[in-house]
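hi! just following up on the protien thing from before. the input was this:
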Amino acid sequence: MAMKKTDLEKNKALKLNNAMKLSTADRFGKAADPKLDRREQRKLDQAQGLVAFACKLNGELVDELKERAATHPEGMSGLLNEVIKRGLAG
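and the predicted 3d structure came back as:
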């Protein structure tokens, strides 16, 4: 059975739309900056001797830590390492 002209046009449009999506999939930095999955990131952290440590802190303290971490060269982890070492030494 022959297809109607409108059905043929719809199929063409779907094919074209899909082809356009596939052709732009590698654009906008998706292929240029591959993200590590959790397992790979965990292995890298373990190799560096890093261990996850969760705790609950006061919201005001967290805000202050975020402000200071923004200017710290090693980010939040580096800032917390520094602050905790200073606190334990004193």
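The longest helix spans residues 5-23.
Residues 51-90 form one domain.
cheers
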